[in-house]
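Action item from last week, closing it out:
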Amino acid sequence: MTDSWSQSPFLRACRREPVEYTPIWLMRQAGRYLPEYRATRAQVSGFLELCQTPELACEVTLQPLRRFPLDAAILFSDILTVPHAMGMELDFRDGEGPVFAKPLRHARDLQSLREPDPEQELRYVLDAVRLIRRELAPTIPLIGFAGSPWTLACYMIEGRGSRDFQHAKSWLYSDPETLTILLDRLVRSLILYLRGQAKAGVQALMLFDTWGGTLTTPAYEQFSLGPMAQIIASLRASPECRDLPIILFSKGGTLWLREMAATGANVLGLDWTVELDRARDLLGDTVAIQGNLDPMALFGSPPLLQAEIRRILAANGGRPGHIFNLGHGITPQTPIAAVELLVETVHNWSA
């Protein structure tokens, strides 16, 4: 890690060091709310091709940094590239989202899954990382990421997004042994994948546990948190990742903040259902926190948006180790002027 990266406000906040202002980046900051993204997307046949074209993935990653003075870039990719690399046929359909042609429905279906080599089946992602790192300003850190094993398993078993995850939860309650085998394979694949991203040049890593909050506490600890803790422990032991901050985000996981902190993650992402001061009271100074503006606040009036931003900053109380972000991903209809106001307000008011 170079001195310019290590002294960036984002990485200093990850280390809970004092900063001149609260750093900010946004989940899904590279995406459909930007007209330049839509123009780039129109150059290819579909979303998957966009992810698989390193030059375009690099371009999309850099687009929001050209518009806004954000404090970190995040790799443009998708969490489902890993199941796709494991041998599952993936398609992104307009109006439907990701769809697997042949979801996992029986224990025997696991036999067709392979453990992908990041420099082979996922080389396009690592090539994008290498290209982004060359093009990105040396003072701006690049965040790599992956989906959590449980979240990936939900998509692989359901075949698509779901409201209740009937098939995935049926495995959990009727065949936990097979579910555990699947999660173990995902753990191994994700460790290799994240280590590959670190070797290629990212300065931080994030685990997106989108569907952990759908579980009971015992199920969350066994099937979601446990596999993520295995990944973090392995990354901590690897020379590529030993010094990289790891961000863990479980949507709907605010009941388990202490358990999440015990995984060894440096930063916990918070959704909008918990106040920062309450999270601080629970966690003390053990980890940094990231969050947690409701993305819908960006559709409000400018004075009320500013008031909400200031309320969140005030709840942190000026304590080190806060990275401003949304409580989930930015939505496609978000006004660009609202994002400009958000970044400006966070920087100016926190300074």
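Closing note: Residues 158 and 287 are 34 Å apart (CA to CA).
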